[in-house]
Amino acid sequence: MPKLILVRHGESQWNLENRFTGWVDVPLSPKGEEEARIAGEHMRDLPVDKVYTSVLQRAINTSKIALAAAGKTEDLPTERDEALNERHYGDLQGLNKAETAEQYGDEQVKIWRRSYDVPPPGEKGESLKDTAARTLPYFEAHILPDIKAGKNVLVVAHGNSLRSIVMALDKLTKEQVLELNIPTGIPLVYDLDDAGNVLSHAYLFER
User: Fold this and answer.
1) Averaged pLDDT for residues 136-163
2) Would the annotation count 87 as a binding residue?
3) Which of 32, 34, 50, 190 might form a disulfide with 4, Cβ 3.0–4.6 angstroms?
4) Can you say how many angstroms the Cα of residue 121 is from the centroid of all Cα atoms in its chain?
5) Where are the membrane-spanning stretches (predicted)?
6) Measuring CA to CA, which residue among 3, 24, 5, 4 is closest to residue 15?
7) 40: annotated binding-site residue?
8) Is residue 67 helix, strand or coil?
9) Can you give the residue ranges of every domain in the chain?
10) Does the annotation flag 97 for ligand binding?
C-alpha cells in the first residue's frame, strides 16, 4: 500500500515577518529549520522512494533537513518543479499582511488569501484555482504514476500548492477548501491503493 507524504515547508523568514511570500525565494527561519528537523524525526519509520519539491529554497531545504533527521541519507531520486511552487501573490508579494489589511480592508485581504477563484492584484497574481491549474496536471503526470507503481512519495511544497492537491484527493468543494489550512512542518500521510484512491490520511503529530 503506497504512501503519499505531504509536507509544507517550515516557517520561512517572511512567514516570521508576516509578509506575502509567493514566488520570492526566501530562506527558512531558524524556527523553520527546527520544524523541518522535527518533521523528519517523525518520519523515521516511513519509507520514502522518491522526493518531489518546488524550486524554492524553503521547500528544498525543508526536504533536505527532514530526510537527514529521518536517517534517510541515501541519494533518493528527486524532482523539483515550479509547478509545485506557492501561488504567486502578484503585487502583494513582499508586503506586510497586517499593513495590507489596513490599506485594503480585512475583508478584501481575506478574499485574496482564502477565496478559491479571486486572484490578488497584479498581472502574475494567482488564485487557488490558478495554482491548481498547474499543480494538479503535474501531480497527475508525475507523482500519481509513481504511487500507482507502488512507490512511497514525499512531496515538500507550499500551503496553496498542497491545498490544491488535498482538495483533489479529499474531493473538497470550493467552499470546503476555504477552511483548509495546512500547517508548516507537519507531515500529512495518505495511504493509497494501487489505483491512487485514498484509503486513509492523517497528520503524523499535532503541534
Assistant:
1) 97
2) yes
3) 190
4) 22
5) none
6) 24
7) no
8) helix
9) 6-40+56-88+128-170
10) yes
Is 86 considered catalytic here?
Answer: yes
Question: Of 35, 42, 86, 158, which is the active-site residue?
Answer: 86
Q: Is 104 marked as binding a ligand?
A: no
In the chain, % of residues over pLDDT 90 = 92
Q: Write out 139-197 in H/E/C secondary structure.
A: HHHHHHHHHHCCCCEEEEECHHHHHHHHHHHCCCCHHHHCCCCCCECCCEEEEECCCCC
β-bridge partners, 192: 198
Q: Which of 9, 35, 42, 158 is catalytic?
A: 9
Could you tell me the end-to-end alpha-carbon distance of the chain, in angstroms, rounded to an integer? 27
The pLDDT, as a whole number, for residue 128 is 96
Determine if residue 129 is labeled as part of a ligand binding site: no
Statement: residue 178 has pLDDT above 90: no
Residue 113 to residue 97: CA distance in whole angstroms:
10
The pTM score is: 0.96
Q: Rounded to 5, what percent of the chain is helix, strand, coil?
A: 45, 15, 40
Fold (topology level) of 6-40+56-88+128-170 = Rossmann fold (3.40.50)
Please check whether residue 26 is in contact with residue 89, taking contact to mean a CB–CB distance below 8 angstroms. no
